[in-house]
Amino acid sequence: MAQERTGVATLKGNPITLIGPELKKGDQAPAFTLNKSLVEAVSLSDYAGKIKLISVVPSIDTGVCDAQTRRFNEEAGNLGDNVVVLTVSVDLPMAQARWCGAAGIDKVTLLSDYKDNSFGEAYGVLIKELRLDMRSIFVIDGNDTIQYVEVLSEMTEHPNYEQAIEAVKALV
Questions:
Q1: Among 9, 112, 118, 162, which one is most buried in terms of CB atoms within 10 A?
Q2: Are 77 and 47 in contact (CB under 8 A)?
Q3: How far apart are CA 150 and CA 126, in angstroms?
């Protein structure tokens, strides 16, 4: 059974339980498989050698998740060709594609953790009560070592965009 962490996160002030390990800077990034579409999957190894900014949102169709993804889409163009920006949620791939088209998102790749929540569990951000992934940011270097982690303590708050971008720029 996966580790459960209570007392570390809330949703509108109400406690929620996160499943999985508490990852830290210097940890090896756990392998993952996420869906780009219902049939196309990608894994951490597909981005080998690249700097990865992984923006995790509970659901793309909510205000903060929308703003977070739009912000990283704006920043992505300034980070260089060796950086990929991935947004992970448990939304179905079709919903992610619909949202991207409507929002004009073209520099961020949206990936879905809908099948088995394996990303959320491996990265310690799966919310037990909701089966959603907790808002968080991971910056992973070209050797798949975690260089920056922010798991928000309150799901409805924004991450520290500037710190995450600076962590990426320090690796470029």
A1: 112
A2: no
A3: 14
Contact 22, 146 (CB under 8 A): no
**Whole-angstrom distance, CA of residue 75 vs CA of residue 162:** 10
DSSP E strands in the chain: the ranges are: 4-11, 14-19, 33-35, 41-43, 51-56, 83-89, 109-112, 126-127, 132-133, 136-140, 146-151
Which residues are part of the catalytic machinery? 65
Residues 50-57: what's their mean pLDDT?
98
- As given in the structure block, the two tokens for residue 122 are 């491996």
End-to-end alpha-carbon separation of the chain, Å? 38
Where are the alpha helices (H) located in 10-85, listed in sequence order? 63-76
CA distance 170 to 166: 6
**For residue 8, what pLDDT band results from cuts at 50, 70 and 90?**
confident
Mean pLDDT of 81-96: 96
Buried b (16+ CB within 10 A) or exposed e, 24-34: eeebebbebbb
130 to 54, 88, 125: CA distances (angstroms): 21, 16, 11
108-163 confidence digits (pLDDT tens): 999 999 999 999 999 999 999 999 999 999 999 999 999 999 999 999 999 999 99
Cβ atoms within 10 Å of 162's Cβ, excluding its own: 9
